[in-house]
Amino acid sequence: MNSSGKRKSMSPDEESRESNEEESPLLTSQIPASDDESGASEESEDEGSGSDESSSQDEDDVGEDTSDDSDSDDESDNDAGYDTASVEKDKSAADPGTTESSVNGKDEYEYDSSDEEDVRNTIGNIPVNWYDDYDHIGYDVEGNKLIKPKQGDALDEFLEKVDDPNYWRTVRNKFTGQKVILSEEDLKQIQRIQSSTHPGGSDDLYAPWVDFFSNEVMEMPVTGRPPDKRSFIPSKWEKQRVGQMVHALKMGWMKPRGEIRKAKLSHDPNAPSLDLWKDDTESDITKRYRMHIPAPKEPLPGHAESYNPPEEYLFDEEEEAKWDGQEPEERRMDFKPAKFSSYRAVPKFEKFINERFHRLLDLYMAARQRKMKMNVNPEDLIPKRPDKKDLQPYPTREGMIYKGHKDMVRTISPDPTGQWLASGSDDATVKVWEIATSRCMKTIPMVGKVTCVVWSPNPAVNLLAATVESDVILINPNVGDKLVCSNTDSTLESYVESATTSEHKSPVTWSTASEADHKKGVRLKIEHQQEITHFNWHAKGDYFATVQRGSKGQAVLIHQLSRRQTQAPFSKPKGLVQRVMFHPVHPYFFVATQQHIRILLDHFVLEVFFVQANCKYISCIDIHPGGDNLIIGSYDSRLCWFDLDLSTKPYQTLKYHKKALRQVTYHKHYPLFASASDDGAVIVSHGKVYTDQLLNPLIVTVKILRGHKTTNHLSVLDCKFHPTQPWVFSSGADSTIRLFV
Amino acid sequence: MASEASLGSTSHVQAKFFTKQTEYSIPDVPYSLPISVSPKELNDIVHSVLYEGDGEKTASFDFLINGELLRSTLEVYLEDKDISIESVLEIEYIERQAAPRPEASLSHDDWISSVRGNNNLILCGCYDNTIKLWSRDGQCLTTIPGHSGPVKCVTWLRSTGDEEDEHLFASGSHDQSAFVWRWKASKKEIDCLYAFRGHSGSVDCIAANADGERVVTGSWDKTIKLWTADNNSTEQKETEDSETLQQAKKLKSGGHKMVTRVPLLTVGGHKEAVSAAVWLDDSTVCSASWDHTMRVWDMTRAEQTQIVEGSKAFFQIAHSRLSNLIVSASADRHVRLHDLRTKEMKGTYTSHAGWVSGVDWSKTDEHLFVSGSHDCLMKLWDTRSPKAPLYNMIGQEEKILAVDWSIPDLMLSGGADNQLKMFNYKG
C-alpha cells in the first residue's frame, strides 16, 4: 500500500500492475474490519517498517492468489520475499522482471516488446528437462522458440566462481535459463525456511486466531450454509481407526510413544538378558483381552413386545387381573402387551432407566464364567475293545450232544488228557464218554444222585472221584492208557493200614469197595456224616477236600489219599462254606463262604487274604491256572473277577446272566473263562492275564452259548472246558451234555 | 455291471462252449446267451447243437467257467465274480455224472468207527471190539473178535498168496494195539499175523504204504509209530530199544499165537493226539492231530519235514494220488483243501451242518471227494464247486463217523446208527 514509496526500480508495467493489485487485497480482506483498521493505524504510525501486517495476514488467510503478486520490493517487502520463495520452489514462473535482476539483462529483453505484460515461457507447468535435448527451452506467446541462453563451459564456470563475488548466490531459472542473483532478502527467507520459521519473518507468530467458521452461531455468518451432518456425527472411520489402534495397543502390536522411548532407553540390544526366569507368558492385559467373555445377549423382543401385537398376545381381563395381582418377580412377563394405533402413538417407555439399571446390574453382578469346553470324542473315552476275531479261538457253536442220561446231569469233568468226559447225574449213574464221538464208554451205577464227579489231576493215575449223597467214591473207570489204569489199581492196593491211625476219631470212614463194586470200577469209598455238597482235588492229586452240609465244625474236610487220612481244619468256619479250592501252585487254600472268600496258608491257620465279594451269595469259584486271579459266580447273577495282586475288591463284575450262576470255570491253556447260569446260557469270555504286572487283565465277553432247555427252573448246571481244546462242555437239567466248539 | 444285469432279462453275454471230451465237442462258435440262463438251459442249448434233433439225448452236462462249476444262473455267477458281460465267456462242459444210487444198508451190532473197502471186500471196525468183513454184494463174511477195546481204524494192506486170494488188513483199537490179519478167501479163514504193541494210548489211525509192507499208526499218546508187516522181518523186534520191548512183552497177551511186533520207529512232535495219518509216497507220511497241525514226516530219516498250521483240531485227512491234494475234516462244519506245496489253504467247502468226521478222495477222478458229517449226511463234492456239494446222500440216521471211497464205484458211510450205507456211483 504505502510501500510504493520505497520502490526504486520499478518498471512502468509493474507500476500499473501494482495499481491494479492495490485494490485486490482490499477486496478480499474486507471482512476483518477491526483488525484492518488497527493495522492501518499501525501503518500510519510506523511507515518505515514497510510491512503490511494485515495485508500479509489477509493474503495468508484468503489464499495463494498472491503467487504472482508483484510486490517487488528488493529489500524488505514480505510479499516479494514470498514470491522469490515460490520461484525457489519452482511453483510457477514468477515474474522474472520484478524479482530478478538479470545478470546480463539485455538477453532477457532482447526481443521483448514493452507493451507486453509478461515475457513468459508458455510451455506451462511441465518438467523442463523435457527440453534438455533441444536448443530452445520453450515457446513464447507467439509460438516462437525461446532459445536456451548460452551455457558457459566448465572453464567459464570456474572463472565465474573465482571472479564473481556473487557466484555463491547465483541460481539459474530453469524456465528461462537465466542466471539470477539472489538478493539479501531472498537469502534471509531461505534461511528462515530452512530453520522452519515463518517464511515471511513475521515477529508476531502468536497473533490471536480469528475463527471465522467457529461452532458458535454467528449473527452474521460467513456463509449461510447449514452445517453438515457429519459435523455433528462422530466419524465412523475415526472410531474404527481408534478401535484398531486400541486393539493394537492391547495386543501389544503397537506401543505408545512414551513406552517406545522408554523401551529404547532401557533396552540395549547388545546387553545380555539377565532375567533368566522371566515369565514369558503373555501379559495380563492381553490375557484378559483374550479371555474376554462377551456379555450374555438380551433376548430379542417378540410379538408381545410389538406396539401392535396380534390379538392373542393381548391380556384378557382374567390375565390382566392375574398380572396385576402378582408380585413383579412372579410375573411371566414384566410388561403388559398393549396395542397402539400407530407407532407414533407409543408412549415413552417409563421403565427405561429401571430396565437399563437392572441390565447393568445383571452384567455387573452376574459372575461370568469361562466354560472350558473340552472337545473330546466320547468314543475315545471308551477303552479300546479288541476285535472278537483277534480273540479266537473260543467256542462259538454247538458241536456235539452227549445223550444217554435219564435225569439231570449235575456235574461233568473232562479227564486231563482230553479224551474222556465223566458225568454224574440224578439218575444215579456216572458215565464216561468219548469226547470226539459222544460215545458212552462206561456207565457206572451208583446208589444215589451224583453231585460231583472230578477226575484226579494226577496224570499217573486214572482216578475219578464221585460224590453220592454222603459218600465220596473213587472210581477207576479203566479207560485210557492201560498202564496207567493198572498203576492206579496197584497204588491203591499197595496201601497198608498203619496201626497208628486211631489217634483221634476220624470224622469219616475209609473203606475199600466190595468185590461187586470193584468190578464196576469202584475202588474206595469215604463215608461222611452228612451230605457232601462239594468236592475238589489238590493239583497234585493226593489231597482232596470235601464240603459237608450242615455239620458246623466239620464242614470242610481235607483228605489225603496216600495215607487215607482225614482232617477237619476248621473248628468253626466263619459262615456257611460253599466251595473250597486248592491254589494251583502255592500252598493256599480258598474257602468261599456265602459272602466272603478266605485264603488260608500254612495248615489252614493263617489267613492271608480276605476277599470281600460284592455279591449276596457266592455259588461257585474258580482260580486262574496262574493262581493270581479268581472268578466267583453268585446266585444274584453276577460274575466277579478278582485280581488278587490288585485288590480285595472285584476287578470287574460282569452281569450278563439273567439268573443265578451255577458254575464258573477257567480254561487251563487258553485265556478263556465260562459261566453257566440258570437262564440257560453259557457265557464264554476272554480273560487274558498278562505276565506283565503292570497290565490289568483284559476281559471281553465273546459268546453267549445256548442250547439247554430249562426244566424246573434249572437249566445249565455245570460247565467245564476241555483241557486242551478251546471247547466248553455244559451239562443241563434236560439230561444232556453239550459240547460247544 | 450289477445294475445293468438287474435291469432286465434282455442283457446278453457272449459265450463259447468247448469240451475236452471229444465225443461231445460242438463247433467253436460264440453264442449270445441271456444272462438269466441256468445250467439246465445251457444243457438244452448244448443238446440242441450236439444232437440237432436226433432222438437220443443220453448225456447231460455240467458247465465250468474258469475252472469253477456253474451252480447258479449265469447272472448270479457273473455278479459274484464281477465279470463284465462285455467279455466272451469260455464255458467248458463236461458230462454230468449220474447221482449216486443207494445200494444196500448193512446192519452192525454197534457203532461203526471205520470203514475201508478193497476190490470186493469191505472192512468195518466197530465199537463192540469186532471187525466185520463184508463182501461187495453185502454178505457178511466174518466177524473178527480180538481187540479188547473198540476198534477205531482199519486199513487194507495187500493181497498175497496164489491167485491173490489172501488179503491182509490191519486194525487199530482203543486197547492201544494194532493187529494185522490175513483173510483167506478160499478157505474163509482169518488169521492174526502180527500184533503191534507199543502205543500208550488208543490207536486212532492206521495207514499202509502202497506195497502194504509198512504201516504207520497214530495214537492218542501223541506219537506216530512205524511198523513192518513184512513176512520175513521178524528179527526187527530185537533191534528195538529195551523199554518198548519190555512194555510190549508185558502187554503181550498169551491167548493168540500171533507175533508181537514193536515199532520200527517212533516219531513224536505233535502236541496232541494224532487223529489221522496218510502215506504221501513210499517214504513220506502226513499226519494230522488235535493240536491243529498237519505234519509231514520223512520216515526214512525219521524227521519232520513240514508243518501246516490249521485253526481247528483235525479229525481226518485224505490224500489224493491224482491231484496230490489233501482234504481235511476238522472240528467244525468245513472241509478244507490243502496243498502241501504251498502254505495256504486252497479251499473251504462248507455245506455240512455238523462236525465233519470223515473225508475220502475218489480214486478215479481228481476233482471228486466225499465227506461225512455228524449231521447224518454224506456229501459228494467237486473241488471246483466250493459253495455247494454235487450230491447229498441221505440214509444215515445218526452221526456218520467214517466214509470211504476206496472202491471206485462204491461210496461207503458208517456211523452211530450201526448201519453201513453203500452208494453206487457210476464214475
UniProtKB/TrEMBL annotation, chain A:
Where is the major localization of this protein? nucleus
Region annotated Disordered, chain positions: 1-119
Q: Where in the cell is it found?
A: Nucleus, Nucleolus; Nucleus, Nucleoplasm
Compositional bias of type Acidic residues: which residue ranges? 12-24, 34-80, 109-118
- Per its UniProt record, what InterPro entries does this chain match? BOP1/Erb1, BOP1_N_dom, WD40/YVTN_repeat-like_dom_sf, WD40_repeat_CS, WD40_repeat_dom_sf, WD40_rpt
**Keywords, ordered alphabetically:** Nucleus, Repeat, Ribosome biogenesis, rRNA processing, WD repeat
Q: What sections of the sequence does the record tag as coiled-coil?
A: none
Q: Where are the WD repeats?
A: 402-443
An example GO CC term for this entry is: preribosome, large subunit precursor
Organism's domain of life? Eukaryota
Instruction: Tell me the Gene Ontology biological-process terms attached to this UniProt entry.
Output: maturation of 5.8S rRNA from tricistronic rRNA transcript (SSU-rRNA, 5.8S rRNA, LSU-rRNA); maturation of LSU-rRNA from tricistronic rRNA transcript (SSU-rRNA, 5.8S rRNA, LSU-rRNA)
Q: Which residues form the BOP1 N-terminal domain?
A: 131-395
**What's one GO MF term for it?**
ribonucleoprotein complex binding
PROSITE patterns named among the record's database cross-references = WD_REPEATS_1 (PS00678), WD_REPEATS_2 (PS50082), WD_REPEATS_REGION (PS50294)
Task: Write down the HAMAP family for this protein, in alphabetical order.
Answer: BOP1
What the entry lists under PANTHER family is as follows:
RIBOSOME BIOGENESIS PROTEIN BOP1, RIBOSOME BIOGENESIS PROTEIN BOP1 BLOCK OF PROLIFERATION 1 PROTEIN
**What does this chain do?**
Required for maturation of ribosomal RNAs and formation of the large ribosomal subunit. Component of the PeBoW complex, which is required for maturation of 28S and 5.8S ribosomal RNAs and formation of the 60S ribosome.
Stated family? Belongs to the WD repeat BOP1/ERB1 family.
Name of the protein this chain belongs to = Ribosome biogenesis protein BOP1 homolog
**Source organism per UniProt:** Elysia chlorotica
Automatic annotation (TrEMBL), chain B:
The role this protein plays is: Required for maturation of ribosomal RNAs and formation of the large ribosomal subunit.
Q: Protein name, please?
A: Ribosome biogenesis protein WDR12 homolog
WD repeat intervals: 196-237, 267-307, 349-391
| One of the record's GO cellular component terms | nucleoplasm
Q: What organism is this sequence from?
A: Elysia chlorotica (Eastern emerald elysia)
Give the protein family: Belongs to the WD repeat WDR12/YTM1 family.
- Alphabetized UniProt keyword annotations: Nucleus, Repeat, Ribosome biogenesis, rRNA processing, WD repeat
Q: Which GO terms describe its biological process?
A: maturation of 5.8S rRNA from tricistronic rRNA transcript (SSU-rRNA, 5.8S rRNA, LSU-rRNA); maturation of LSU-rRNA from tricistronic rRNA transcript (SSU-rRNA, 5.8S rRNA, LSU-rRNA)
Q: What is its main location?
A: nucleus
In this chain the NLE domain maps to: 13-78
Pfam families from the UniProt entry: NLE, WD40
SUPFAM superfamilies under this entry? WD40 repeat-like
MF terms from GO for this chain are: ribonucleoprotein complex binding
The record's listing under SMART domains reads:
WD40 (SM00320)
Q: Which residues cross the membrane?
A: none
Q: Which InterPro entries match?
A: NLE, WD40/YVTN_repeat-like_dom_sf, WD40_PAC1, WD40_repeat_CS, WD40_repeat_dom_sf, WD40_rpt, WDR12/Ytm1
Q: Where in the cell is it found?
A: Nucleus, Nucleolus; Nucleus, Nucleoplasm
